[in-house]
Design goal:
Keywords: ATP-binding, Ligase, Magnesium, Metal-binding, Nucleotide-binding. The chain is an alpha/beta fold and 197 residues long. The protein is built from five helices and twelve strands. The protein has a single domain, classed as Rossmann fold. Strand 2 and strand 3 form a beta hairpin.
């Protein structure tokens, strides 16, 4: 690892700590009505976009991440929703189909995921949780590189980050393996990044 990449890793880790603190306190201080209203309905540009995609990848919220599953209730019922799945800590992330009447089990990273025998899926559009983001599509994730590796092997999938508005930063530090988002959705706005949408 070069000094530059070591510095980037440390810079990202400091940002993660700061942004997790922001996210935690923002989510804890949302009143009940705001919490219930956030991420419950797809904004118009996204509902139109989803009509053109067969399988949507989402996630089961962990901690103070925004809970987006209510936005996709209809897709889930129709069998068009998939969630991340890890077979083991060293395994690559995959997506597996999930419906609301099916259990979510604790995965090797502590996150909730579909059962090991749920059918594999390849989403056309992926909604991923963020620790931080910038308006150019830069993202700060949990640090494991799971989404970046998945994006690298599935470049055709559209990538939409999900976060609270307080997670925005001026510029996310980027390594060569970091893959930019196409858009970001917060409780306040839908931000286009790049020209794929």
């Amino acid at each position: 690892m070069t000094d530059l990449s070591a510095d980037l890793v440390q810079q990202k880790q400091r940002l993660r700590e700061k942004l997790r603190f922001r996210r935690k306190h923002f989510a804890a201080n949302l009143d009940g009505m705001a919490q219930m209203a956030a991420f419950r309905a797809l904004p118009a540009p996204l509902s139109d976009l989803l009509a053109d995609h067969a399988v949507v990848g989402a996630y089961a919220a962990w901690g103070d991440e925004p809970d987006i599953l209510p936005m996709f209730a209809g897709l889930a019922e129709a069998g068009a929703l998939a969630l991340p799945h890890h077979a083991a800590r060293i395994a690559d992330m995959t997506f597996r189909h999930w419906k609301p009447d099916e259990p979510l089990l604790k995965g090797p990273w502590g996150t909730r995921q579909p059962a090991d025998d749920a059918p594999l899926a390849t989403p056309d559009i992926i909604f991923c949780p963020l620790v931080g983001f910038d308006r150019q599509g830069g993202r700060i994730g949990q640090g494991g590189g799971h989404y970046d590796r998945y994006f690298a092997t599935h470049p055709e999938a559209l990538r939409i980050g999900i976060g609270w508005s307080v997670q925005e930063i001026d510029a996310a530090p980027r390594e060569s393996t970091d893959i930019a988002l196409d858009a970001i959705l917060t409780e306040q706005e839908f931000i286009l990044c790049g020209d794929r949408l």
